[in-house]
Amino acid sequence: MGDSPAAERVLRAAVSAFAELGFHGASTREIAARAGMSPAAVYTHFRSKEDLLFGISLDSHEQVLAALHRAAAQGVTPPERMSSIMYEFTLFHARGRAGAWVANNEIAILTAEHARQIKALRRQMMEVVRSVIEAGLRTQDFHTSDPSMTCTALMTLSMNVERWYREDGRWSPEDIATHYRDLALRMLGVTS
Amino acid sequence: MGDSPAAERVLRAAVSAFAELGFHGASTREIAARAGMSPAAVYTHFRSKEDLLFGISLDSHEQVLAALHRAAAQGVTPPERMSSIMYEFTLFHARGRAGAWVANNEIAILTAEHARQIKALRRQMMEVVRSVIEAGLRTQDFHTSDPSMTCTALMTLSMNVERWYREDGRWSPEDIATHYRDLALRMLGVTS
DNA sequence: TGTAAATCTGAACAAGCGCTCAGCGATGAC
DNA sequence: GTCATCGCTGAGCGCTTGTTCAGATTTACA
């Protein structure tokens, strides 16, 4: 259920509608209109509106997790790894490829089972970043009094970009990713 | 319109309902129930649901702005001022006194005129932080390649705390404020 | 004690919601 | 040529939404 071209169109329509209007603010009629079909047609691809939100959320979380793993493998030393992670993670959210935060606020809307799955993926994302930070502490490249809180700060900082980024703004996604990469190293006490 | 004790109760009920369920997710009946009155009674205090959101937003933005001004006056050197600002700003959001972000996402819901007022307040908040950063650059206490983006990063970092802070978590608001204060100085290139 | 204002209620309005269903037209298999 | 399958539609279901209104109750002051 939900990987034909038409289903893909519904998914994209829902991402933009949810991002713009919020879950409750985006009606199924609005989503259907953006996908260029009747409201009833949406239900041939998705069981319910909640199922649609879950589909988006699962999709984007899996993509982000994969990107994180790829980025972490991109360097050797912890600072290199962290640079790569922060750059890619920020880029992802600046490009709005995520729709990740859609479910971030609205995780409470999901079914208990669906919420469990998303939370598990989010824990894995956290784990990737955490492990690099701890490696850096051991090699004394990083210095922080509370690795866990710094980890939270780093990730939420990046994810938040999706909220304020404007395509017509003065910064490109790459500008932001570059700057945030530098900020991350500073936050971890790397003195260059 | 809206400063009697009963109106205050409605305001608090709406803050919690909006924060928990989102603007569209929180019905006027739900808000009325939380305030301990009938749905119709809400409309003696507020013209509309949008007016209620605006009331909350205006209130919290004015409080945050005042706190920022107070904090900025708390130190002499730019690092001192910035420490104080970041601590207070973060504390405010961790304590959830804001309901600020409620309107942060949902500013699109507001009337054009109401949105203008909120945006103006937000610009003023930004200006307070910006001026301290620029003072620090002149005194060479701070070093950053893009003061404007660093300013955005600092503010969004703090504001985001309201999204993930849990009362039953391992960190107190003061813990977070203290850590974020240190992070802010690092992000601004202060070497201690 | 009487009166005006402030505050609240129950009932109801039109409109919009998520979702279902019988049926339509095109496509491809036999 | 027939028939099943698929993606889709228009109509409409039961329900909830924001909001209004006539009237009841409470409060404040003379």
Describe this protein's structure:
The structure is a homodimer of 192-residue chains. The first copy, chain A, is mostly helical and 192 residues long. Chain A folds into 2 domains: 1-46, Homeodomain-like (Arc Repressor Mutant, subunit A, Orthogonal Bundle), CATH 1.10.10.60; 48-187, Tetracycline Repressor, domain 2 (Orthogonal Bundle), CATH 1.10.357. Helix content of chain A is 72%, strand content 0%. Chain A has 10 helices and no strands. Chain A has helices at residues 5-21, 28-35, 39-45, 49-72, 78-94, 100-105, 112-138, 147-159, 161-164, 173-187. In chain A, helix 4 (49-72) runs antiparallel to helix 5 (78-94) and helix 5 (78-94) packs antiparallel against helix 10. The N and C termini of chain A lie far apart (51 Å). The interface between A and B is medium-sized, with 35 and 35 residues. The structure holds a DNA duplex (30 and 30 nucleotides). Chains A, B: This is TetR/AcrR family transcriptional regulator. Chains A, B: Keywords: DNA-binding. Chains A, B: Residues 4-64 form the HTH tetR-type domain.
What tags apply to this protein structure?
homodimer, 192 residues, mainly alpha, Arc Repressor Mutant, subunit A, Tetracycline Repressor, domain 2, 2 domains, 10 helices, elongated, DNA-binding
Q: Please give the alpha-carbon distance between the first and last residues of chain A.
A: 51 Å
Number of helices of chain A: 10
The amount of helix of chain A comes to over 70%
- Tally of domains of chain A: 2
The CATH level-2 architecture of the largest domain in chain A is identified as Orthogonal Bundle
What Rg of chain A is obtained from the alpha carbons, in whole angstroms?
18 Å
CATH topology of the largest domain in chain A: Tetracycline Repressor, domain 2
Q: What oligomeric state is this? A: homodimer
Work out the largest interface and the residue count of each chain: A-B, 35 and 35 residues
The class by helix and strand makeup of chain A works out as mainly alpha
